[in-house]
Amino acid sequence: MTAVDDSRRELGEFLRRRRTGVNRAEYDLPPVGRARTTGLRREEIAFLSGVSVTWYTWLEQGRDINPSRQVIDAIAINLRLTHAEHDYLLGLAGFTPSPRPEPLAPDPVPAHVQHLLDALDPAPAFAVTPHWDIAAWNPAYEHLFPGVVTAPAEERNLLVFVFTDPYVRAMLPDWDTTSRQFLAEYRAEAGGRIGGPDHVRLVGFLRGASPDFATAWDEHEIDRFASRRRAFVHPVDGERVFEQVKITPQDAPDLTIVAYLPDPVLLASLADS
Questions:
Q1: Order of strands across the sheet with 256-262?
Q2: Which of 12, 56, 166, 226 is the most buried (most CB within 10 A)?
Q3: Model's pTM, two decimal places?
Q4: pLDDT tens across 64-92, in order?
């Protein structure tokens, strides 16, 4: 038996042990039968990872197949492997684990993007990177959410705030719906970046920090952004209602500007009163 055969066999056995050892309740799944509360079925982890049951079965059986790095990363994320386990799995599959980068603050936005944000004031507005790191904002957004200033730059991420910050959760009367909508939109936008180091770091962090995120992420909901009404309950200003819109500058395509404009329906009703 060759070293390659040994690696395939070890990879399959490693996946099987991790798959059968997880707690089903952590995936919001019922027990198997009447009693078994541990272990995912092969079809369950295959579905979560976006591969066929047959293909995943062959992987666990150590067959002569060549999984891509993106598939290995997806399986590692969905089995909730530690960084060390993830790197070990990559090595067994024939990939060199990439150095795990430290989270970095987003690069400063171009001056004209900040100018646009400031021009939108008093409408709260901010700019996000492809992984939804908040790179810049205007005074109105800072008033709406003061935590954007005090958070460490490398943790200033919209999904992190939505799923881990009690202030944000308390401000959103429809938090359950809004948080899942945000996640579905992020997943739709992530596309080919899924499996990249920034994405793996973000998803890995949120899985450990928020059971709500882990449950919602495993549901694989996808939805495109559409302008919509947003309501906030501000601790000082009370209820505030906006229309959320997005703008992508042509000369800064890696940034998206999110603006909360005065809700036109609310303005019309105030004008008529």
A1: 134-137, 125-128, 256-262, 238-247, 228-234
A2: 56
A3: 0.65
A4: 888 898 889 889 888 888 878 888 899 99
